[in-house]
Amino acid sequence: MLRPHEPGPGCLDPHFIFLLKWQRSIYHRCLNLTISSKSAGIFIVEHKYYNSVTVGSINNCAMNCQGPFFSADAKRFAEFWIGAWSSLCCFSTLLTVLTFFVDVKRFEYPERPIIFLSGCYLMISIGYIIRLVAGHKAVACDGDYIRYQTTGPALCTIVFLLIYFFGMASSIWWVILSFTWFLAAGLKWGQEAIASYSQYFHLVAWLVPSVQSITVLAMSSVDGDHISGICYVGNQNMMNLRGFVLAPLILYLVLGTSFLLAGFVSLFRIRDVIKQQGHQRTEKLEKLMIRIGVFSVLYTVPATVVIACYFYEQHFREEWNRTVTCSCDGTGAKPDYSVFMLKYFMCLVVGITSGFWVWSSKTVSSWRKLCSKLCCSRTDDKNKYSAVTYTTTTTVTTIPPTAPSTKGSHTCSYAPSHV
Fold first, then answer.
1. Chain-centre distance of CA 220, in angstroms?
2. Fewer CB in a 10 Å sphere around the end CB: N or C, the chain?
């Protein structure tokens, strides 16, 4: 037997509160399912999560599968919201990646990292779609509880890897994109010089997220999100959220923005030098600067908003939980539903807007050329087939005018025998 839990100051005995809520299936369930009354108090039989889970400063209680904060209607809308944006993200990024394969030579460095960034968001959207197909409980829940400190099952791990690994990889490709722009604009590197380091770019972009993901799995830090129904890190443990999510995202955003600003300063200087030399034709350079500027805003704004949403969550999470576990605090703090919907939208919108770089007349021309090649190849095959058939029939049916007359008498000699 274990010692009874001491009630918090100013609160009713948490066991009676939890037991009552457990019996009514509201909000939480005590982790220890076998409870017996003794004169000394309430004693608890050990559960697999015992002494490892805390909610609202109360040990040994966990969130149930659906969580305490939002209604069933809100959860259904969240599922529709995430499904709509993940499907649109999947379509946009798939189109971008296919456009790259249609015309590979068109996307050279420093623009090529945009393609890999789009590919990462394609995998992220697939992770959300898998969650929608499999269902909330199959991915994020361990029976009646939300998942805590887990590395499985396989479905949960797959969703985690698709969203976390490729999410971090996309942030690193953003840093590489900004860095290559800086090399091209600030240090005057050519395409071939930048491309010669592409293997190192790939090494960093895929190795660092791999180390991060393996570390999370090795520490059994994957848990479920009771709102979106995905498996991620830091949904229930704020230390994991700060260490594995917030810190890397902030680092990658600061590095990428620094390289981007340095590249912009160099581009402005180049434009001023061209104008001072009397060359008035700076339209192409200014057009490039506008495209880089727009794409940068389309990335940095969502990334900053996602970080702000995570800050909001990690700052108030404990207060929200205490409101549920100990209502006598009187704070009444509840999470803002719109902040979570904004976070999920911003996590996917970069994949949608990453197609901005390929939304041009060149893309239409590339696809038109591909369609023309396919149609022409089919037409040529039909013409070849028709020509072969024609020649064969004419050879069989046509009698050359120079044929000897004996051939005709030979055919006629068979007539009397038939008669």
1. 22
2. C
Q: Minimum mean pLDDT among 113-122, 127-136, 409-418: which range?
A: 409-418
Greatest mean pLDDT among 102-111, 186-195, 221-230, 392-401 lies in 221-230
Q: What pLDDT score was predicted for residue 380? A: 57
Long-range contacts of 271-278 (CB under 8 A, 24+ apart): none
376-404: pLDDT as tens digits = 766 655 565 555 544 444 444 444 554 44
CB burial class (10 A; 0-12, 13-18, 19+) of residue 118? Answer: buried
Q: Are 112 and 355 in contact (CB under 8 A)?
A: no
Q: How many residues does the chain have?
A: 419
